[in-house]
Amino acid sequence: MSTTAPRGAAPPSGTDLRALDAWWRAANYLAVGQIYLMDNPLLREPLVPAHIKPRLLGHWGTTPGLTFLWAHLNRVIVRDDLDALYVTGPGHGGPGVVATAYLEGTYTERYAHITDDAEGLQALFRQFSFPGGIPSHAAPETPGSIHEGGELGYALSHAYGAAFDNPDLLVACVIGDGEAETGPLAGSWQANKFLHPVNDGTVLPVLHLNGYKIANSTVLARIPQDELLRQLEGHGHRPYVVEGGFADENGQSEDPMAVHERMASTLDEIVAEIARIRADAKEQFDAEGRVDRPRWPMLVLRTPKGWTGPHEVDGKLVEGTWRAHQVPLSETRDNDAHRAQLEQWLRSYRPDELFDGEGRLVPALRALSPRGAKRMSATPHANGGELLRDLRLPDFTDYAVDVPEPGSGPVGTTAVLGTWLRDVIRMNPDNFRMMAPDETASNRLQAVFEATDRQFVGESAATDEGVSQVGRVTEVLSEHLCQGWLEGYLLTGRHGLFNCYEAFIHLVDSMFNQHAKWLDACRDIPWRRPIASLTYLLTSHVWRQDHNGFSHQDPGFIDHVLNKKPQIVRAYLPPDANTLLSTMDHCLRTRNYVNVVVAGKQPGPQWLTMDEAVAHCTRGLGIWDWASNCGNEEPDVVLGCAGDVPTLEAVAAVSLLRRHLPELKIRLVNVVDIMRLQDEREHPHGLSHPEFDGIFTTDRPVIFAYHGYPWLIHRLTYRRANHANIHVRGYKEEGTTTTPFDMVMLNDLDRFHLVIDVIDRVPGLAVKHAELRQFMVDERLRCRRHTRQYGEDAPDVADWVWPG
Amino acid sequence: MSTTAPRGAAPPSGTDLRALDAWWRAANYLAVGQIYLMDNPLLREPLVPAHIKPRLLGHWGTTPGLTFLWAHLNRVIVRDDLDALYVTGPGHGGPGVVATAYLEGTYTERYAHITDDAEGLQALFRQFSFPGGIPSHAAPETPGSIHEGGELGYALSHAYGAAFDNPDLLVACVIGDGEAETGPLAGSWQANKFLHPVNDGTVLPVLHLNGYKIANSTVLARIPQDELLRQLEGHGHRPYVVEGGFADENGQSEDPMAVHERMASTLDEIVAEIARIRADAKEQFDAEGRVDRPRWPMLVLRTPKGWTGPHEVDGKLVEGTWRAHQVPLSETRDNDAHRAQLEQWLRSYRPDELFDGEGRLVPALRALSPRGAKRMSATPHANGGELLRDLRLPDFTDYAVDVPEPGSGPVGTTAVLGTWLRDVIRMNPDNFRMMAPDETASNRLQAVFEATDRQFVGESAATDEGVSQVGRVTEVLSEHLCQGWLEGYLLTGRHGLFNCYEAFIHLVDSMFNQHAKWLDACRDIPWRRPIASLTYLLTSHVWRQDHNGFSHQDPGFIDHVLNKKPQIVRAYLPPDANTLLSTMDHCLRTRNYVNVVVAGKQPGPQWLTMDEAVAHCTRGLGIWDWASNCGNEEPDVVLGCAGDVPTLEAVAAVSLLRRHLPELKIRLVNVVDIMRLQDEREHPHGLSHPEFDGIFTTDRPVIFAYHGYPWLIHRLTYRRANHANIHVRGYKEEGTTTTPFDMVMLNDLDRFHLVIDVIDRVPGLAVKHAELRQFMVDERLRCRRHTRQYGEDAPDVADWVWPG
């Protein structure tokens, strides 16, 4: 919202509100029509069973509140020429937001077959929750939506993500009182301490208290209003309340016109207050370079669940109760009384006043919608690809680590990446953000703080470092909020990166699910323009939780991610700094994916020069000739590895083998792009069988050292010819607070055990080299004893070349 | 806490607080010792490098606050003979709670080698974060803990879970201001609306505002105090504030004695207020059968991070900043100045006053601890197995569905389970609870409301159904809160069940991880007595999201669960009501597991009589002879199935095959216990290879219809001889709001496709029966067309026997 936007001084006239009410009735009529009608969309004939859908699906309860707010926002959008985005927390109310998009003309623009006439109306009704049609919720298919109405909890974090770096945008965010009970939503209230009142946009939270969930009252509707307001004030807001539409003791509902009047004047106050806050902040920022944190207004909208719907059904109260949640009249095909009540309900909106003979919204109501991109259903912010600019990326090869020979270093891999990210931030000052749960420094990306700070608009202290009111890093100790912010930021056409401890990214498993499903659905929606991928950098990983131990060890996010559509998901395990740079440069250029990149933060050996790294990452996996000794011949054994720590152990195992068994022909294969292991018919990155067989052979033992749970490698390779010979070591839930080498030993991933595995698997070695095998067993014991006695690793295991 | 507990009237005398301060100093000394010392535990000689651990691990910052609160709670526990449990939200402060357990003597009772003398002290210090020792956090190894100090967010929900049905228990719950930023914690504040002030215990939240996380200030420490208090009041609390210990502008810290005095008098007020609230509630409840919701007291404890530690290191402020988070002096082996500062720090606690010549805590301080089970480190509530009583379970066979022949019904499977659960609730009125995110009725378990209500202590309304102030079902729209409550309830020795939509259980993936890791660690801790398993009933599953579509479809929780230790995790897919009853009866009797049970809520065909169901569930999988036609002969094809919908499709496919290809020898295998598929060396429930081969053959095609992601079956069976012939159908992320049969068709799991799979896989059939194959293709098209036209399934697919 522009700080200089004009605003109307007088409260809206009665005439305005009559028209607004008619527009609202039209939206509600269309919503009910979508839930119930197959035919007879304008009720030009009496309702008969054949007009009614066989399966009644959808959620009525929240719908009238959503359309009510939409209608009122339209009034101020038109008057003040606002840019607004509508985030539908109660996404179940799909019929409502589909209806408003249709009334604004956007639906017909997006879907030509849903015409602006009676036939289009019938198609609109029929397609809703109908096989081959559209889902029942606000969804990617819904114009104006950035928010799937499935899992609850993310409306407010999405809204704040959308508002970052969009100073002219007003994001109205409806929060259902059901959603308000979720943890992620409850944690999102604090987001207002991160929003800058000059550089970022405005979020207007609307807590829609309709009192009920599926089967139960809501908590916030059942505490005294002063306690509720105190809580909202404690979240840093100035809450306004609009309440109305309830029935009196005779069952007589309050005239909606009275509620419209209260809503309109309250919204005028709120819009004025937002303009004042922004103007004051601008003035202060220009003068002092800082701002006082505003107490942003918010709205509590208390209306009956299923408002304007059937008040009673079969003698039971419906309006204003949980019974209005889904379909209030459920037997309208077979039960004549239900059908009559449905017809009466539909006619109560007076469709003949709203639609002309052709079935088109009458001109007086058409005139109420904003124009073009000002329509909330058509705003490009809700189709972020329309606004997406390419990132300006510094040449990552300029940040290369010098690798005079394989195994040089040690170098901190993520620290190197941090220098590149620092310059990404510098080159993209208004459309790239990094999110993290207070871990950017812990994850060794601290170079970014040479270019920027953590953005925080709460109080500051002299001891703060790397924190200021303006910054490109947004950190809060909530993975949910980080994920929601980033999703909102990406969905509105910007770029970002989420860095996180590997184990705790599981906190957002379910949020990832919803985002991946959103991206998947968008593949079939031509008007949805591609958005930047959601890229995770997972570090502080399973093998190096030196401080924290067992509770911080879980490498299973990749397993979870790979359950989603192959067209959407990517996973990379770069083994060193140059491969990490190359991988991340690629990921930040991609669209419509979820990229998972796992890389350690502890200094480690470096394997590839930048040229080699680029070639290796382009292939996604490859034979490391310098570590192999089989040349072009078929090897006796293949050692595979993926991930930095397993790569170190595999290379060290090769070093041991080449010293002790120089005649053994070994091939070392490193995998960066884990999806290369899968069949090309299963994943677009998959290798063909001949390619795979050329690398892993069809009949030689493969000892594979993997970063995560070992069965993932089997899941990816079970169709390969050589699968029966693939033997995987990885994390098997053995861990505690101990040394790095003890960790790999606990899980049998250590170099000695890999050598034992080779001896056990290559025919003939076990008998011939029993002594060497025993030596490896003894080496493990020696290392364990050293660690138990001195509390640190034996010094020789820090290296990858075994002393000759 | 007993409502009749006596309480001291006068504020504590100065002498008391001097001793309390000494006890606190002893705890802090032991904490610092654990982080740093290998030797010289009593500083009887000057500190030299060899006394210091080579790897300095642990978190000092939160520790002095934890020990401070513990010391003060001990004072009122002793005085008022309270039963108290301490939940350490900032579990990083492991050294603190290990120290208090040692000072109370519990540590030595639990671990005989950690003796009560100088040698024991040295062992105590050495083992901390040391290979072969104990983890750095509060953990299962820590006496008195029910809460792993790893992932943050669950302290308060655990505390409420512990308090349910424990009217005499006071649960003090420390919430770090970092943890307070997480979504799950933020959502937990509302839990006080669910706690009954007569039947349940008391939770005393202590918000420990030390201002910093790892690298950053905390949000709640950077808002004005009146805003914070308003928020806490808005959460329904009466907050008390104790602030102190901060340095003045000269770096001079406030005398801790002054802080002790404020803390002691405030805690007296709080304890008195709790007693008053409980007494008043009891009186009101006895008189009116209802209570007014109390405004429970809580404490805001604002002290410096790393209080009493090094104030500055190398010229940089440490105490009171994020630099105190982990190890404030990091180079104490090599840097003489650091080591001198460490020695000075340790000596500042005046160890010679605290420990006698033997290294034993001096008698005056020993006397301050409560006795026996009153010690928070020794309370049986923190070792719930000590309190666990077996559930009284009604004979589940009495609830059997009559199954005159396979395929009878349809019957709603979870509705039948509901009748049994209703009686489980009746027979266990004080130690069994059901948790759900507002879904118990939606999941068709509504029979339980014949026996009980949803417990809610907020406002009530005339329209409420199944809600009252006392009830055994606790519902809130937060999976996190449900999971946290149940974990807290189980860990303190009770029983429960979590029912949830299948897709959204991913919300608690990470909480499950932590609980499973807790259970795994407990296997190695002899004094930890077994607790009841955590059992999930996942319903409203992927195949029947008729209302909600794609966003509600994710059967991957089993995949996630199976990454944890096989000794801990179990997964069951009962295909009908009798098998669900048998499965659930088994699960509720088990200990120390996580049981995942997946079963649909929609009416479906019933396959097994109760006798057959018991036998089938006991085996975990089995051949269904009535559906097979191969007798004792080797079949031409095996149809496997797991899950209710896949079982229906597999049986219908067999019906089609037997009609059209009567000569084909078919074996139908149903799997309830999915872990039976795995190798017996991998999972305790796994079949041996000969057993598996006896059922699935070594060389015949197996067409497996699975409930979830198909690759899970490959992951479980890749070592089986016949693996290359196993062909799995399952959910492959195809879905929308559509009909049930359209859903299985979208994912190629339908009966027609299974028949096509059989034709394609059994040698010779494809050529010979090309016409039949085409017929199946046409049948699919016919069904799809019907659905697209009429919005419902073709009527014939509702049945499992194909019309002859």
Major sheet description of chain A: 6 strands, parallel
* Biggest sheet strand line-up of chain A: 12-9-13-14-16-15
> Using CB atoms under 8 Å apart, which protein chain pair has the greatest interface?
A-B, 124 and 124 residues
Give the CATH superfamily of the largest domain in chain A. Answer: Thiamin diphosphate (ThDP)-binding fold, Pyr/PP domains
Mean pLDDT metric of chain A: 95
How much helix is in the residues of chain A?
A: 25-40%
Rg of chain A, nearest Å: 30 Å
Number of strands of chain A: 22
Please report the first level of CATH classification, the CATH class of the largest domain in chain A.
Answer: Alpha Beta
Percent of residues of chain A in beta strands?
5-15%
Helix count, DSSP H or I runs of 4 or more residues of chain A: 25
Q: Segments of chain A where pLDDT lies below 50 for 5+ residues?
A: 1-10
CATH-assigned fold name of the largest domain in chain A: Rossmann fold
User: From the structure provided, what is the oligomeric state, counting identical versus distinct chains?
Assistant: homodimer
Distance between the termini of chain A: 70 Å
Family (chains A, B): Belongs to the XFP family.
Organism (chains A, B): Pseudonocardia charpentierae
Keywords (chains A, B): Lyase, Thiamine pyrophosphate
EC number (chains A, B): 4.1.2.-
Give a verbal description of the structure.
Chains A, B: It comes from Pseudonocardia charpentierae. Chains A, B: Its EC number is 4.1.2.-. Chains A, B: Belongs to the XFP family. Chains A, B: It is an enzyme of class 4 (lyase). Chains A, B: Its cofactor is thiamine diphosphate. Two copies of one chain form a homodimer. In chain A, 36% of the residues lie in helices and 13% in strands. Chain A is an alpha/beta fold and 804 residues long. The first copy, chain A, folds into three domains: 3-383, Rossmann fold; 396-604, 3-Layer(aba) Sandwich (Rossmann fold); 622-798, Rossmann fold (3-Layer(aba) Sandwich). In chain A, the strands form six sheets. In chain A, strands 12-9-13-14-16-15 form a six-stranded parallel beta sheet, with helices on both faces. In chain A, strand 4 (237-243), helix 9 (256-288) and strand 5 form a beta-alpha-beta unit. The longest helix of chain A has 33 residues, at 256-288. The N and C termini of chain A lie far apart (70 Å). The model of chain A is unreliable at 1-10 (pLDDT under 50).
